[in-house]
User: Fold Regulatory protein RecX from Salinispora tropica.
Amino acid sequence: MTSRRARAGRGWDASPPRTGDAATAAAPRRGRRNADAATNSASSTDEAELAREVCLRQLAVRPRTRAELARALTRRGISAEVATVVLDRYDEVGMIDDAAFARAWVSSRHVGRGLARRALATELRQRGVDGDVAKSALGELDDETEAETARALAERKLRVTRGEPDAVFRRLVGMLARKGYSPGVAIRAVKEALAAQSAEAAEFAEQIDAEALSDIEVDP
Assistant:
């Protein structure tokens, strides 16, 4: 006699559930998958929104390179995929422009701080500017302009520097070297500034051989 359990189809040899039963059983799984997909989509949207906020805050302070913004996003835990999408969009609308950034940086830092091309190249590299882009921007600063700026810096520093001519000379050359000027440019600029200051300084400057001293070590 067939047991009631077997007739009910609920034993170890029970038949597979009917189509309607299978659909009912699968419904919760589809619901979970849909919920997970919705959650992932919302998370991506939230992450992209955070990335945009981070970029806007950074750009509100001053222009930034793409590399600087990418580093800021990494620090906030933004994934590389989301960061790329956001930064690509900012590139498209012109909110990121490394070439324009480099030109403005070179102009402002040379005029404002008197930095030479060598120092400016280092700063651009630290900010992630591509080598060719940096080279193009630095090309707008020519040798004559750099020499004139070095001379002006030396003259200004000389007005407030006291001491023996030799010590003053080394101090001024060291100041220009820290701003990225080559030894030859720095020495010639200081020599010209000394020559214009006084008869004594001019006499000392006359004895300076800029070419011969271009490889000397100067005091910091």
The mean pLDDT is 82.
